[in-house]
Predict the 3D structure of the following.
Amino acid sequence: MNSDKTLTQLIDGPIDKDKVKIVISKSKYKLTVFYNRKPVKDYMIVMGGDPVNDKRREGDKRTPEGELKVRDLYPHKSWSKFIWINYPTQASWQKHNQAKADGEISEGDTIGGEIGLHGVPVGNDQLVTDGVNWTTGCVSLTNKDVNEIYDVMKVGTPITITH
């Protein structure tokens, strides 16, 4: 489903941002943009140093899984654009607290935050194209790709992150 065409070229007519949904598959290193419930385009992604497991605490270099939404979007001086997601969610807090109760993380561990989708430092698209998991838990795309998806998203856009 990858295409040399941009999202705006692939979506016929004016884009209704209410019809956009993002699905991220961590195991496939793939972000898919859906429009009107149909997959439109895939993008390669990278994540943090532990791309397999679900986020449990701040500093674990994991990307959270679950049903999330865009909290805010803005230009970023280091990563082109930042699409801030609403982590932690109630479900994230439940997983975090259960991990504490099960002794998987320490009582003093915090849940973290400031998780989002973003680009890479200028001139470093190879971090994504070479599959380098360099973030502390965010999802990273090439700057061209993050700019493209940024243009079709809004506060409230649903994002599903799966293993």
In short: The chain has four helices and eight strands. Residues 90-101 form the longest helix (12 residues). The chain has a mean pLDDT of 95.
